[in-house]
Aminotransferase (Allotamlana fucoidanivorans), 394 residues
Amino acid sequence: MQLLSDRILNMATSATLAMAAKARELRGEGKDIIGLSLGEPDFNTPDFIKDAAIQAINDNYNSYTPVDGYAELKDAIITKFKRDNNLTYTPNQIVVSTGAKQALFNIAGVMLNDGDEVILPCPYWVSYSDIVKLFGGVPVEVKTSIDTDFKMTPEQLEAAITPKTKMMWFSSPCNPSGSVYSKEELQALVNVFEKHPDIYVVSDEIYEHINYGKGHTSIAEFESMYDRTITVNGVSKAFAMTGWRIGYIGAPEKIARACNKLQGQATSGANCIAQRAVITACNESPEKVKYMIDEFKGRRDLILGLLSDIEGFKCNVPDGAFYVFPNVSYFFGKTLKGTKINNASDFSLFLLEEALVATVTGEAFGNPDCIRISYAASTEQIIEAIKRIKEAVS
Ligand code: PMP
Ligand code: GLU
């Protein structure tokens, strides 16, 4: 009998994590790799959050928590949703999970039946498509390009909808393009959804606070969307807490209760100390972490400036998150230092081997013309990395 399930054999490895692991491995061999593959802030978790965690340990928070999160944490998340997003939720609509990734797993697990279609505007975050497929869903990719700032138009949305469409998943600010949907652009999509009242939306807002001035709108703010939007968020990015593993949703009660049920059979709930720390994070004003956002903005401008000096790198100006997503199709078909570049994966691998810079192929995000470069790294690393890339391709 076959050892491993078809389910796992058919699943792709997370390209972001695989590239980070490869970079780590090469570093272990003594190679001076600059890692710009992983979307992970290089800041320390702020002291006010660390202090809350230390306090929780000393206060002997060591037992299982309620599966969907401590009541105080759910209250803090409700406060956050009201304060930042003008969204009103009750405790039964909130579920705290082990990262936004588990929140997405839960949603797919409780909502998808075999053959249900999920619209994914491309580029999408690397894990969406495999999470959807794991639970029997069928990803329907909607291609966008740099010409529309990698955003899906209402016409494209309309064209992608079929009688089997169950949901659409998207992130704004977007990982990997950094694009932010304005209120007007969301309104145009909402106009289409209003003609299709049975379609749900997963709005992944984990980069909400990493926004360089356009302002953030949650699609659930539109009255016709509130009852069919699952708003996903978490503390990994804005609070530099990737390893703490806390994410959460605000959702229609039926969906939230189903996620609670699924999670009760999976993890029994998120880590208790991390949950206590996140109460503090959610109750504080996002102003507290603005110093990191300001720094990311400076790095965005830096990397865009440096890349504009390299022939063949065509970038949009990302309004949020901490990635650039240059179109590098200029290099396809060319031979660089003896290596034939056929596609974005070849190019990303070439950069790793020749420039010792780790990036991620756009293929993992549903866009085979681009690569993703994270600028959640020090300015010195960014300057050195782009210098090496320039040398490798020229
Ligand atoms: N959504 C997006 C768009 C992401 O970039 C990430 C990356 N970490 C996640 C969800 C998952 O975040 P986490 O599980 O760390 O909360
Ligand atoms: N979300 C981050 C990224 O896109 C972290 C890696 C992951 O969770 O896949 O790089």
User: Anything to note?
Assistant: The domain at 47-285 is CATH 3.40.640.10 (Aspartate Aminotransferase; domain 2).
